[in-house]
């Protein structure tokens, strides 16, 4: 093993990756988390195809925001270029998560936004969770993972949303990506997304015509937790 410089982000990426199986968001080698050091212009990411049971901080691969490997002995996640594109264009994110969690992925495969049906969803954000349209064949045949980054960014841009308005997206035909100021926040967002996706699925199973949550309740629930006059928690 070569000498390692980026111990802080290696540890952060390792800890965040290990949260995915613990939270039931992945099995086997599904998914990946990265942790950025914005000052150094690099991020640490899970090595490709390594089971979570075999991971260690030393195995994390450090790459720059163009996806070039800076440090590490293993091949980085196959999704590395998607992470790199997002870090490069979104200045304030410190962590990115990709899972194939069951319910969020089912919505992505169905190519549907997740409607905001209830207050659980509104406690976290006020918007339907966007689903990016499937990628055209010529982009799939080209630099697929790099283009996935743009597929995510374009989906937010088309809806006039920034990466700070919403920290989660479904990639049509594929699966969810989430992000946040830290890797831990990005993992939290993945767990919240999976819960919201499951509840929305069950809501439509019980009532196919379930109404979207009314605006007054969206505003009330979001603001009591995140607004200037928040009274949630201690
Ligand atoms: O999207 C996929 C597979 O469709 C990947 O995210 C795998 O779930 C994990 O790949 P590695 O990070 O192990 O390369």
UniProtKB/TrEMBL annotation:
GO CC terms, sorted: cytosol
EC number, as in UniProt: 5.1.3.4
A Gene Ontology molecular function term of the record: aldehyde-lyase activity
Catalytic activity reported: L-ribulose 5-phosphate = D-xylulose 5-phosphate
SUPFAM superfamilies hit by this protein: AraD/HMP-PK domain-like (SSF53639)
Annotated GO biological process: pentose catabolic process
Matching SMART domains: Aldolase_II (SM01007)
Family the UniProt entry places it in: Belongs to the aldolase class II family. AraD/FucA subfamily.
Entry protein name: L-ribulose-5-phosphate 4-epimerase
Organism this protein belongs to: Chitinophaga flava
């Amino acid at each position: 093993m070569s000498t390692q410089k980026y111990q802080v982000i290696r540890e952060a990426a390792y800890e965040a990756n290990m949260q995915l199986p613990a939270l039931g968001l992945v099995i086997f080698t599904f998914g990946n988390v990265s942790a950025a050091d914005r000052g150094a212009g690099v991020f640490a990411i899970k090595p490709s195809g390594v089971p979570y049971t075999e991971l260690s901080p030393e195995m994390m691969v450090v790459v720059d925001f163009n996806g070039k490997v800076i440090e590490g002995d293993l091949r980085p996640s196959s999704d590395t270029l998607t992470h790199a594109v997002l870090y490069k264009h979104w200045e304030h994110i410190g962590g990115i998560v990709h899972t194939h969690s069951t319910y969020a992925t089912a919505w992505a495969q169905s190519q549907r936004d997740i409607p905001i049906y209830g207050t659980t969803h509104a406690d976290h954000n006020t918007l339907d969770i966007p689903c990016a349209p499937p990628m055209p064949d010529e982009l799939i045949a080209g630099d697929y993972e790099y283009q996935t980054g743009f597929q995510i960014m374009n989906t937010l841009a088309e809806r006039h949303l920034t990466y700070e308005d919403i920290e989660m997206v479904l990639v049509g035909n594929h699966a969810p990506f989430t992000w946040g100021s830290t890797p831990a926040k990005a993992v939290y967002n993945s767990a919240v997304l999976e819960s919201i996706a499951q509840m929305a699925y069950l809501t439509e199973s019980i009532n196919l015509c379930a109404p979207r949550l009314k605006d007054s309740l969206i505003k009330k629930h979001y603001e009591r937790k995140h607004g200037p006059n928040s009274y949630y928690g201690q």
